[in-house]
Amino acid sequence: MNPERFHVTLASAGRPVQQGWWASEATARGKHRDWVGEWGDLPDARVTLTDEETGTTLTTWPETP
C-alpha cells in the first residue's frame, strides 16, 4: 500500500495553500470533504483529490462544468 497514493490539494486564487497524502482513498475523500467545509470560503478556493498512482483526478470542488 502506497502511503502517498491519494493526494488532496487546496488552492486559493490559483496558488497551493495546503496539501496532504493518504494511503486510503476513503480517508482522502473524507479529508477532501472536510477541507471543502473548512476552507471553501477562501477566495477562488479549489479542492482536488488525485490518485497519484494513475494520475486520475477523482474529484474537484467546485465541480468543473
What does this structure look like?
This protein is of the alpha+beta class. The chain has a domain at 6-48. Helices cover 23% and strands 42% of the residues. The protein has 1 helix and 4 strands; from the N terminus they run E-E-H-E-E. A 4-stranded antiparallel beta sheet has the order 2-1-3-4, with helices on one face. Strand 1 (6-12) and strand 2 form a beta hairpin. It starts with 5 loop residues before the first strand and ends with a strand.
Quick one: overall form? globular
Q: State which percent range the strand residues make up.
A: 35-45%
Order of helices and strands: EEHEE
> What's the story with the biggest beta sheet?
4 strands, antiparallel
* Helical content band: 10-25%
- Poorly predicted runs: none
- Please identify the structural class as seen in this structure: alpha+beta
Rg over C-alpha atoms, rounded to the nearest angstrom: 11 Å
